[in-house]
């Protein structure tokens, strides 16, 4: 657990900035911009995911964002190729969408199955229990599916187009 502490801290910091960006953009889109709540939430969710991805790629998982093995040793290429970064972002977005579904499932279970319909019960189910479970899923997915150690990435995942 002690070895995970820096990773957990970095993940929490990136998530905090992402949450702030999501909330601020949602409030601005709903208020002064006049967007409907679903469009505002979709756009703010995407912005929050982008902030979290950037924070994790630049900070928490920086050592894992090095190019996969086929690029190792190339003196001219120091950045991860764009197709690999796009795939990572798409995987990150999918992990975050799964987390959002976990939150909605907890809210739906509490509200519609258990009949706990008060505002407090909804908050506990969606923003409490749902957020805790979703955060665990996001942490696991981010570290194992998105930012794997370069040594764990199979060579066949990198195509000739990635070599570029």
Strand fraction band? under 5%
Secondary-structure element sequence?
A: HHHHH
Form type: globular
The span between the termini is 40 Å
Largest sheet: none
Structural class: mainly alpha
Chain-averaged pLDDT: 86
Q: What is the gyration radius calculated from CA atoms?
A: 18 Å
How many helices? The count is 5
Low-pLDDT windows of residues: 152-164
**Oligomer status:** single chain
Count of distinct strands: 0
Helix content: 55-70%
Description:
Helix content is 70%, strand content 0%. The longest helix is centred in the middle third of the chain and has 32 residues, at 82-113. The N and C termini lie far apart (40 Å). The protein has helices at 5-30, 37-60, 82-113, 119-146, 160-163. The chain is globular, with a radius of gyration of 18 Å. By secondary structure, it is mainly alpha-helical. The model is unreliable at 152-164 (pLDDT under 50). The chain contains five helices and no strands.
């Amino acid at each position: 657990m002690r070895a995970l502490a820096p990773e957990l801290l970095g993940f929490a910091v990136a998530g905090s900035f992402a949450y702030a960006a999501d909330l601020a953009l949602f409030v601005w889109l709903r208020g002064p911009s006049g967007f409907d709540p679903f469009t505002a939430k979709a756009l703010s969710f995407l912005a929050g995911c982008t902030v979290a991805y950037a924070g994790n790629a630049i900070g928490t998982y920086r050592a894992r964002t090095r190019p996969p093995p086929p690029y190792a040793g190339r003196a001219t290429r120091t950045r991860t190729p764009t197709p690999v970064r796009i795939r990572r972002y798409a995987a990150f977005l999918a992990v975050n969408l799964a987390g959002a579904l976990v939150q909605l499932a907890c809210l739906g279970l509490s509200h519609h199955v258990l009949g706990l319909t008060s505002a407090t019960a909804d908050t506990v189910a969606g923003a409490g229990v749902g957020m805790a479970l979703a955060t665990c899923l996001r942490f696991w997915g981010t570290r194992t599916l998105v930012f794997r150690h370069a040594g764990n990435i199979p060579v066949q995942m990198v195509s000739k187009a990635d070599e570029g």
